[in-house]
Amino acid sequence: MDLIEMNPSETLAWMSDYHCPPYITLAHSFHAPEGWLIENRTLKQYALQYVLNGMAEYPVAGGSYVTVKGDLLFHRPGEQHSIRTVENHPYVCISIVFHFGQTSFPLDELFQDRHHLGNFTGQPIERKLGEIVQLYSHPGLDRQLKCQGLLMQVLAEASQGKGQEEANAGGASNHAKLILLKNYLITHYHQEVRHSDLEGVTGLSRNHMILIFKKTFGMTPMQFLTWVRIQKAKELAIQTDLSVSEIARNVGYSDVHTFGKMFKKNTGSSLTQFCNTLTTDYLNTRPRIIPLAEENQGYDEP
């Protein structure tokens, strides 16, 4: 039975080792093949997605996150989400799907409206998620009880992640600063972005920031910004009737010719050609991504 597709109440008859919430309907690790994706899925249960290795784009409930090793994502019942792998990057993750049956559990009090719960590389949460997967694969009352206990610990510890990051902002690790920088670029892709802005966000020098960002994410900050703009431009081309010049403005380019050169250099075709190749089947297919241009592509000057 595919328990994760069911309403919570429908799963209980199939979960003989569970006698109280939380009810875990899926706990596994997954190594995604090249080009794998989930597009616009909606579950009736809660889900945690933890990145063990690699990188993936994770649109959820109108927002979008580019997740990397250590990132923990959360979504609620009824929230539409997608998972899109990135060309030339692996994606290995842990997925935990669960519900509380008829019990009203205040997860919104723990997480408010957050989907990205933090980055937990090398922290106890990572180990506990791995233990849940191992125990879940061997049914039995004792193992399921341990899974339930570990899941509640993960939820409690993940709820504290943001507060701890804010409290320690002055002495945050480089990795935490890079996550902050990555989310800044995702949020401000439609604006003019300069390296001086990014230095202000992270408190890191330009050269050091570029070096460690590329080492962590496989591209420089400006390459990542270009990648985000390309994905947003494709989304607008598919989902709206905006003209090319309007799309250019929406993704941060006041000059449509500059936008056109950037798009063609990084994808191998113009946006108009991209639109002309769209078919009904294409909407369920991951867009092809070409390696990005050099770090200074865009507004920032050397």
Automatic annotation (TrEMBL):
Q: Which UniProt keywords apply?
A: DNA-binding, Transcription, Transcription regulation
Q: Name one GO molecular function term.
A: sequence-specific DNA binding
Quote the Gene3D superfamilies the UniProt record gives: Homeodomain-like, Jelly Rolls
Coiled-coil-forming residues are: none
Where does the source fall among the domains of life? Answer: Bacteria
What Pfam families does the annotation carry? AraC_binding (PF02311), HTH_18 (PF12833)
**HTH araC/xylS-type domain location, by residue?**
179-277
Answer whether the UniProt record assigns the keyword Transcription to this protein. Answer: yes
Name the record gives this protein = AraC family transcriptional regulator
What species was this sequence derived from?
Cohnella herbarum
